[in-house]
Amino acid sequence: MVTTVQEKIERLVRPEVHAMRAYGVADPGDLIKLDAMENPYPWPEEIKKAWLERLLTVEVNRYPDPAARHLKTRLREAMGVPVGMEVLLGNGSDELIQMILLVLARPGAKVLAPTPTFVMYEATARFVGMQFIGVPLNPRDFALDVPATLAAMAEHNPAVVFLAYPNNPTGNLFAQSDIEEIIRASQGLVVIDEAYHAFAGRSFIARLEEFDNVVVMRTVSKLGLAGLRLGLLAGEAAWLAEFDKVRLPYNINSLTQAGAEFALANRGFLDEQTESICRERDRLFDGLSTLPDLKVWPSRANFILFRPARRKAAEVSDGLRKAGILIKNLDKSDPALTDCLRVTIGTPEENVAFLGALKKLI
Ligand SMILES: *Cc1c(COP(=O)(O)O)cnc(C)c1O
Fold first, then answer.
1. Which pick of 80, 123, 145, 319 has the fewest CB atoms within 10 Å?
2. Burial call 330-341: b when 16+ CB within 10 Å, e when fewer
3. pLDDT, tens digit, for every residue of 257-284?
């Protein structure tokens, strides 16, 4: 019998995967790239030179250290992981989300998160075959709707709750007391995703010992090392030992181990860049706030969410693209984000260019 590739695919591929679309990333071309929460600053030349010297000593003919011991020591110190808590590394925190869900995907197990939030919680839940329960945030200020969350938790008994702190794409920090209530009500694991910790200055990491159902996730991506692909999970050894079982051996390559270790040992320049991004965020927020016909939400991260009152998000996004600037159009990604856009904080020059172009479009 002759069958087409399409027929074979439909017979063999899991239907929930076949129905998905691959994670799309816009091609930036020559545009000013303000769409992906990257640090806009390059490394100082002398740091780059020292980094290359360090990389010359890496033996790429050998497998990496599977436990990444030196890097872990450096990360514990840089991230303030409490003594007594363990650390697990992922190829980006995206991989850690996948490891957590692979381990918790018992038949019928569910994943819960407030929405809108980081898209990978739902996408990964789907591809490991777990049901995703989204609980809408308060649409005015994107605070947690605690009664609705507790009700959904009572109804669905999720194996895991994800809380991005600060949240992406809304930029706000949830109230600490709201998070505590959710942790106490949870029969499952609570993952606090602190991808934007560097810009927020708030964390649950020091409180890990208080709760036996909480792990904290961090990444070096938003800090300025997105190209290295390195995330970490901090928590009780017993939890991390389970997640470690589904980790592919050598998931953190030698160049990432050496590069991240080097960057963290010389992190002064990254801290300065972070401070500058925070200053620019506050300036850009003020700039956006003075524009008429624009709703702007305060941010504790390195991006700002806004909504033009009299223009469609697509018009603004296309107009900016014509002006040479790429930002993220969030329209249709969630009912609460109709006509919303998200701009990543760039260099002072990039932010001025963005603000100038935006003024003309709204
Ligand atoms: C960007 C982001 C991540 C992914 O980080 P990587 O380490 O680059 O995979 C995780 N969580 C949130 C909330 C993010 O915004």
1. 80
2. bbebbebbebbb
3. 999 999 999 999 999 999 999 999 999 9
pLDDT at 1: 67
CATH number of 59-265: 3.40.640.10
Write down the pLDDT at residue 328: 97
* Ligand 1, atom 15: closest residue by C-alpha: 168
Q: From the CA of 113, how far away is ligand 1's center (Å)?
A: 15
Q: Where along the chain do the CATH 3.90.1150.10 domains lie? A: 5-44+269-361
Whole-number Å distance, alpha carbon 28 to ligand 1 midpoint, is: 19
| Residues of the chain above pLDDT 90, percent | 95
Nearest protein Cα to ligand 1, atom 5: 93
Probe ligand 1: pick from 37, 38, 91, 93, max atoms within 8 Å of CB?
93
Distances in Å between the Cα of 133 and the Cα atoms of 159, 189, 279 are 11, 15, 36
231 lines ligand 1 (CB under 6 A): yes
Average pLDDT, the chain: 96
Cis (ω within 30 of 0) for the bond into 308?
A: no
Q: List residues bridging with 310 in a β-sheet.
A: none
Atom of ligand 1 nearest to the CA of 90: 7
What is the CA(206)–ligand 1 centre distance, in A?
Answer: 21
Taking the domain 5-44+269-361, which CATH number applies? 3.90.1150.10
Residue range(s) occupied by CATH 3.40.640.10 in the chain: 59-265
299 has pLDDT over 70: yes
Provide mean pLDDT across the span 131-149. Answer: 97
Secondary structure E strands in the chain? 32-33, 86-90, 110-115, 131-136, 160-164, 189-193, 214-219, 231-235, 294-296, 303-308, 325-326, 328-329, 341-344
For residue 310, the CA-to-ligand 1 centroid distance in Å is 32
For the stretch 63-89, pLDDT in tens is: 999 999 999 999 999 999 999 999 999
**Residue 25 pLDDT level (bands cut at 50, 70, 90):** confident
